[in-house]
């Protein structure tokens, strides 16, 4: 019930509905709607649902009309002394003040409970925000590492392309080098063959020039060919042709042992 509102609320914990029509009022200054009052106070003994007080008196529970007619208003206090009327009015105002105070206490309790829940929610939210910040930081680190990896991949691809280009250039240079080496080898072999042929030809020429002119022409000699031939053999104590013994004659001679 609001402080500016003149409508009472049901004091049943799970109801809290605005009262209209009929209400159940207890001696412990609590009021209930007609539905919950009829259900709770039909048992015996009756117990107040708000404060658990025993309501055993005849007038401890009263079902009253919240919007009485004009005739009821005119007759309910008629004939009573002013002090009784004032006492009844004071008691009614005290009941109303208690309901207002009770409602204010309930609202303050609800507010404190809501604030406590809010603080818990804020604490939980801060924890979740911190965990989210940590996760975001980790994700930012992963994104940075992924960017670095992308950069490394790009650099690797560039270096790979350069290496392939260098390999292609090396292959070209290797091919040129092999072709030049083969050509030089062919040229070297040809020059060596030419030098060998030239050297052989010069050697033959030099050999022909260094050899004697001609051997003695025995056939062109005169009648004294025999005397010249044998005279050459007889020089310096050499034997003549007829002084050499044949192997057959040496074999036929007897062996004479010298003493």
UniProtKB/TrEMBL annotation:
Keywords of this entry: Coiled coil, Metal-binding, Zinc, Zinc-finger
A biological-process GO annotation: reciprocal meiotic recombination
Protein name per its UniProtKB record: Cyclin B1 interacting protein 1
Domain of life (superkingdom): Eukaryota
The RING-type domain, residue ranges: 10-52
GO cellular component: synaptonemal complex
Residue ranges the record marks as coiled coil: 111-169
InterPro entries the record matches: CCNB1IP1, Znf_RING
Entries under Pfam families matching the protein: zf-RING_5 (PF14634)
One function term, GO molecular function aspect: zinc ion binding
């Amino acid at each position: 019930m609001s402080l500016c509102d003149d409508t009472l609320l049901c004091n049943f914990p799970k109801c809290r509905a605005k009262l209209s029509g009929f209400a159940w009022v207890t001696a412990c200054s609590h009021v209930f709607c007609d539905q919950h009052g009829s259900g709770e106070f039909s048992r015996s003994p009756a117990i107040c649902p708000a404060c658990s007080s025993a309501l055993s008196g005849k007038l401890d529970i009263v079902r009253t009309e919240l919007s009485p007619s004009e005739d009821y208003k005119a007759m309910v206090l008629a004939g009573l002394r002013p002090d009784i009327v004032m006492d009844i009015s004071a008691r009614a105002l005290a009941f109303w003040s208690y309901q207002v105070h009770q409602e204010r206490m309930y609202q303050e309790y609800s507010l404190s409970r809501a604030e406590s829940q809010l603080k818990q929610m804020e604490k939980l939210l801060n924890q979740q925000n911190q965990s989210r910040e940590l996760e975001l930081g980790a994700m930012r680190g992963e994104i940075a590492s992924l960017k670095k990896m992308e950069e490394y991949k790009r650099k690797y691809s560039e270096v790979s392309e350069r290496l392939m280009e260098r390999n292609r250039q090396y292959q070209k240079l290797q091919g040129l080098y092999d072709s030049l080496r083969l050509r030089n080898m062919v040229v070297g072999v040809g020059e060596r063959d030419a030098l060998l042929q030239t050297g052989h030809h010069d050697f033959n020429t030099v050999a022909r020039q260094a050899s004697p002119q001609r051997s003695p022409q025995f056939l062109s000699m005169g009648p004294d060919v025999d005397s010249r031939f044998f005279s050459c053999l007889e020089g310096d104590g050499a034997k003549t042709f007829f002084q050499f013994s044949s192997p057959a004659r040496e074999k036929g001679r007897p062996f004479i042992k010298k003493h």
